[in-house]
Design brief:
Strand content: under 5%
CATH class of one domain: Mainly Alpha
Structural class: mainly alpha
Largest sheet: none
Number of strands: 0
Distance between the termini: 49 Å
Number of helices: 9
Helix content: over 70%
Order of helices and strands: HHHHHHHHH
Length: about 170
């Protein structure tokens, strides 16, 4: 019985370290997916809870991808359930330095990206964030969302057309 407690304590320490390391990046992904900081925090908290419940089965090297997939699935479930509502929100000041380090020059620029993404459908926004912000391949996006590569390509193409080729051409989404 004592071994179970030590194993449990070690798992808790490992999980806590994972959350501390993954939270900033997953939080940015959640905000970009939802367009709303409060909703993003709720989804991320639920994703971490679900990851924790299965922590014993999660490989350490796959924990980030596992949690990101839960986050994307929770967001997909959310937009399937809800009625149309504005998705433009506050990305939060705590994300400014991280955004700047990824090439987002100003708060205005960051907010501009969030507003432009808000003009896309939920599916388009999710695919664009996974493809260009997280730099996943078309195949990886398809696997993450359980859709075909062709659907990723066509949806991405439509989304890029809606965003305008200038923004993507300047590389400001990646």
């Amino acid at each position: 019985m004592g071994g179970d407690v030590k194993t449990s304590e070690r798992a808790d320490v490992e999980f806590t370290a994972f959350v501390e390391g993954a939270q900033p990046r997953l939080s940015r992904v959640a905000v970009l997916l939802t367009g709303n900081r409060a909703t993003a925090e709720d989804l991320l908290q639920e994703a971490f809870i679900r990851t924790y419940l299965h922590w014993g089965k999660v490989r350490p090297e796959g924990a980030y991808s596992y949690t990101r997939r839960i986050l994307v699935n929770l967001n997909t479930d959310r937009w399937r359930r809800r009625h149309l509502e504005p998705v433009v929100g506050d990305i939060g000041d705590d994300h400014v330095s991280a955004a700047a380090s990824r090439g987002y020059a100003t708060v205005d620029h960051r907010d501009s990206i969030v507003h432009e993404l808000a003009g896309l459908s939920d599916r388009e926004r999710t695919i664009v964030v996974l493809r260009y912000y997280l730099d996943l391949s078309e195949r990886q996006v398809a696997e993450e969302l359980d859709i075909s590569v062709g659907t990723v390509k066509s949806t991405c193409s439509r989304a890029i057309a809606r965003l305008g080729t200038q923004r993507v051409g300047e590389g400001r989404l990646s």
